[in-house]
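Lesson 9: reading folded outputs for more than one chain in a single document. The general rule is that every protein is listed as its sequence immediately followed by its structure tokens, and records are never interleaved. Here is the first one.
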Amino acid sequence: MSHNIIRKSILKYSDTAFISAEDSLSTEEPLEILLYAQKNGEPFSKPVSITMRTPGHDTYLAAGFLLTEGIIESFTDIDYIRQSNENTVNVKLNDNYKTDLSKLDRHFYTNSSCGVCGKGSIENLKCFQPGLKITNDTKVSIHSLLSLNNKVKEAQSAFNFTGGIHASALFNSEGNLLDVFEDVGRHNALDKLIGKYFLANKLPFNNHLLFLSGRSSFELIQKAAIAGFPIVAALGAPSSLAVEVAEELGITLIGFLKEKTFNVYTHPNRIENVSLNP
């Protein structure tokens, strides 16, 4: 069993009586991201965030967070990134990086269910780069889409034990599962996935598909756009703002993805053989 799963003695009601049992729980602990940089030629450090997450792949999480929050734009902005203890990641930016402190203007604490808690305004929420637009014509078949959910379920080791963890999965356009990350936080799972490929200088995801195990909120669509995903498919519902942002940024957004049905909310041109019955 994963070290990110703990066992807890519980009382379970079954039929007409309580029985003693054990349950598996997903671990949730705080991660502090400390940023080191130069300002006016002088070194400074700043705690960027404390986020509640499932421990593991924390340097990926930190890198993905800094990218998708607009704090950095290239992996070359990072001098080094390392974990100083089990719940802290230190990120040193290159000395020639021009620090914009306004990009750090957010509340210090974020919880595992909300990637944007503490953002100051709707303008600040829509922090994607000016002119960002996904324009490639990557296509995916209906058959591939309908197969995604089962493939992710088979790969979700922690979910199979706990039932209480989210996944972000990377697929190619043929529907082959390439990678999956799990976390108690939806935005953390996505930041871990993006951060891994960002640090390897393998972004953008021009010909790939993102699968989300829950609902699609606008901050997840924003993160997906920054990583270059042309197609996002979610098991749950999108919010109205998620649909608005996907439409604006050129992302094909799919929701309520089941084994036989799904909804297409934006840019259906990337789905092969789309046709409407009268």
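And here is the second record, again sequence then tokens.
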Amino acid sequence: METELEEKNKKEEIKRKIRKARKNGEILPLTTDDCFKIMFANQAHLETLTFLISKVLNLKYDMLKGNIRLEPTKVTKTEIGKKQEERDLVVYVKPIETKLIIEVTYDKELLDHLGEYFLENRDDYIIKILRDLYYASAVHGNSLGKGEGYDKLNALFLLEFNPYFIDKDHKEFYEEYQLRNKYGHILTENIKIININVVKCRKLWYYNTYKSDEFDDHEKDLILLGALLSAKNIEEVDRCLQDINTTLEIKKLIKGVIVKMNNNDEAWGRFYDPKEERKRLNDSALAYSRKRGLKEGKEIGIKETKQEMVLAMYTKNLSLEDIEEISGLSQEEVETIINSSINDLEGYKQSERK
């Protein structure tokens, strides 16, 4: 735990960073949770939300105006399992009977550059997307009314704005995942996961390469949207808004909300102290990796885990019967582990005393 002095010094350091950032014209990117929710997941700003959905789904703004509905982002334990889950934005799009779940991820280290990022250790981000998909599936199924069949389910799109690619061989600015068999045949068009790399979008926009014939009009809109979400200063916001095809009123609203939310010291404080979110992702990734290792039958890993479990319980003076029951091992297996590790037990006991 932090001492009172350490906590005070950290707060002062955050204030110093905020002053420096504002002096240099920096802003909180829209990919931070606070800013994204203020801008789009807000009943008071349905115009900006309608703008976002129109660009994502390539639909006319006028068609969507008044026809989108913010859905609850929080699902209780009883509806989805043991944990209460919350997502950044859940929207029902009435004209096309589609539920859209949007998630944003901020990573300062990645957004500070204009490079193209692929994940070497992908576990923490994969588990995040899988967690989002499980959530989406649970919400989707629970949306059925009593007595309704699954043919009544709406289309479901999970959209991720991230500063990376999941697939290291990917060359586009976005990735699309669907349910397919081994021959590449799609099971349904009604379920999609789309990962848009905002760093790649910002690079394509920054160097004007997005204007080439390589991209169609919808793809250009998505690139500009990704660039806007990852803009680092007001100058970039202004340039990006000039390029985006939307009304002057919406551009003014977006700019006004960005300016207002960047006056919020609490949001800046969370921006510079994101360790809790990182810890949660790392904990999830660790649990996922262990589970995957067990499922894949990594015998060495299983053996080492069982040995550690048995030795830890033995040093806590649990009976052999209790150790057998908890570990799922036989009496002979438990005794073999203890006897073969007898020289290490004193070290275990000393570490436990500490």
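What the second record shows: The CA atoms of residues 7 and 115 lie 35 Å apart.
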